[in-house]
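seq as requested:
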Amino acid sequence: MAISTPIGYQEGPTYPKLTLINYHHRDSAKDMLGKCPVIYEGVPEVMPAKEEAFAFISAVARHNAVVASTTSTFLVTELARLTGSPERFMNAHWLNPAHLMPLVEISKEEETSAEAVAQLVASLEAIGKKPVVCNASPGYIVPRIQALAMNEAARLVEEGVASVEDKVNQVRTDLGKRIDQTNTKLDQVRTELKEEIGGLRSEMNTRLSEQTDLLRQIAHNTKRN
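struct tokens:
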């Protein structure tokens, strides 16, 4: 698949839909890939398929294109060596279901340039995604946190603390909503802090101005005497 124009979200009746995606056969995709500033790879999660895909991309992509793998299996350090430009390569892990979840985890390595990271972030933000950046690590960020929660849920069932049904109901009716409400509260606190800091800054500027005027008056009177 080659994307020749920016992708955008178009609100549908039940969920946003991706638009402006062009599909091409491998042979006809060469010219399109040569025009793309950002290329996302999404072939099956087996190394031979990755090697073939990146060899093809490296041969046809423009010299300054940013390339990102959507892999959830391979580290960025493993895949970067398959490309001719590791400084412009990253992993971009889209959280599933990708059409509903805005988060994308960008994984970079030591050779990844800051310019490439900024370009990939801008590409994702342009389609309504919320990218976060991390270093190379198995599981990225969210899957590692999920694994801890899932392991603890299994322990609760094994220890007889709660049944599977009760645990599922707890997650559905409490945990998810609590996280959502916490995010809402954090947004409110952040807004209130910005307003309070803005007010304090204005008050401090006023006091500094008054003190400056007073010091000038004292200096003037001192010269006169």
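The beta strands are 8-10, 17-19, 38-41, 66-69, 89-94, 103-108, 130-135.
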